[in-house]
Amino acid sequence: xxxxELVDGLINQDKRAIQYLVDLYQKDVIKTAYYFVxxxxxxxxxSQEVFLEIFRSIARYKKHSSLSTWIYRIAVNKSLxxxxxxxxxxIFNQVKxxxxxxxxxxxxxxxxxxxxxxxxxxxxxxxxxDTAVNSLPENQKIAFILNxxxxxxxxxxxxxxxxxxxxxxxxxxxxxxxxxxxxxxxxSEYIKTNT
Amino acid sequence: xxxxxxxxxxxxxxxxxxxxxxxxxxxxxxxxxxECSRIVSEFQSVTSVIELRKTDEPNPFxxxxxxxxxxxxxxxxxxxxxxxxLRVLRPLSVSALLLIAVIIGFSIVKQGEQGIxxxxxxxxxxxxxxxxxxxxxxxxxxxxxxxxx
Lengths: 195, 149
Known about the structure:
The complex is a heterodimer.
Chain A: H1 3-11, H2 15-37, H3 40-57, H4 67-102, H5 116-119, H6 122-134, H7 138-148, H8 154-161, H9 165-193
Chain B: H1 3-8, H2 10-14, H3 20-32, H4 34-54, H5 62-81, H6 84-132, H7 141-148
Helix pairs in contact in B: 3-4
């Protein structure tokens, strides 16, 4: 099935076209969402939202970019929306627990310092990296994830982000500098507390 | 070369993007500075998670769930886009047909009962006329003949 045939099939709600679209892009969409939200189940749920959005707005798809670029763009936007919702929820929960513990006179928002046992665990490493990546400004985060996890070329990233290639280069450069800074601070602290 | 150069070039070193001369100086510094050496090793360990994450695979049935979700969306769109007749009048007309069928059924049963009652009354009338006129009951001779045999 060619791309125009696929698009026409989706507009006409052809079940064969839907199945073909899902077979072709489900893995890419789930993995992209996973690299952003760091949880496979959430990524699978998000991928349903992504495909629904594709299905709902396929009639508005303008063929200025390839279908895959358009799909990646939807996947990235849905993932960022999810992270924003999650952040709002976390802030709300933190405020809620702060208000609750204020009555006891203890502070619930305290981060445990890393311990050697847990630090060596893969999960702990994932958490450290995720925390650092998630603290990046949104555009830097998108550029970094698409480049380092999806192994996309600058040109592809530029198309997805609707930016010039030089802007993507600059975003990636700044993302790496910021990440290095955050990780070096974390490691220095860790080394100090564990020597 | 000082520690800040190491801290600022961790990705470049990892991605082998440093020019030869700087790469050699970078490694020479790591031999002489234990803290930077530790930081580089931790950095490589944490960023190795990127490669690890690429090997994580989604649920093989995720695609089926996506298709099901789209199909249910298609159904709801279809229902919403149906004209008023199909959405409101169709269930109403089905209910009305059912009601009519029930009423017809009742009237058939009622008519049947009425017929039986009328038949009994008719038989009674014949019987009373026969007794008034002293007409004996009809005897089926064939039946009595076979009964006697």
